[in-house]
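HOLO CASE FILE
Compound: zinc ion
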Amino acid sequence: MKAINPLLDKILIPIVLGFLIPIATVVGSKFSTGDWLVWFSNVPIWIWIVIGALITAWIIVIAIRRRISKLREDDHSPIQIISMPDGGWAEAGKIGYAGVYWIVLAPKNPWYELEPKRITARDLDMDTPPRCPKCETEIEQSKSFWGGYVWKCVRCDFQKRNRDSYYREKERALKVVKREWEIKYTPKR
Ligand SMILES: [Zn+2]
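Model generated. Tokens follow.
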């Protein structure tokens, strides 16, 4: 509730003013002339239009400012807990997903293991940020004002809008990769 209140105040003020001005006009008219509508009809129509426009502009400015501050709040990348395998990661391949490239990582065999361990789908991970589909540079992500994200390459002119962040898309791409790995490397019984 606390977060909503300042916003409500800011929106309520123009709305209340929007009602108060005509009410004050009508009441003032009644007291000074005895008729409810004398003042009201004396006020030229353009004044009402200007008042209406000012109130509308006020509400729009508040809505935009609120949207911008929300975008700033959300702009943190999620904390990722990456466990490093004993032998480190090796690049196991590259896949295209959500219009960009993703580097697939597989654990390297630790130097002390003489017999290479079989890598299962569960061992796989993926690198973020993903890579540009044109030049393979790491993608830069920013939030779009109207919702969703913009992915940009800093090296070439590649640009793409995406509904979800690349952290989210990474989880999806990884599911695809794991399944494909299972199909390819699970021994047939
Ligand atoms: Zn590029």
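CASE NOTES: The chain is about 45% helix and 15% strand. The chain has two domains: 4-72, 89-185.
CLOSED: yes
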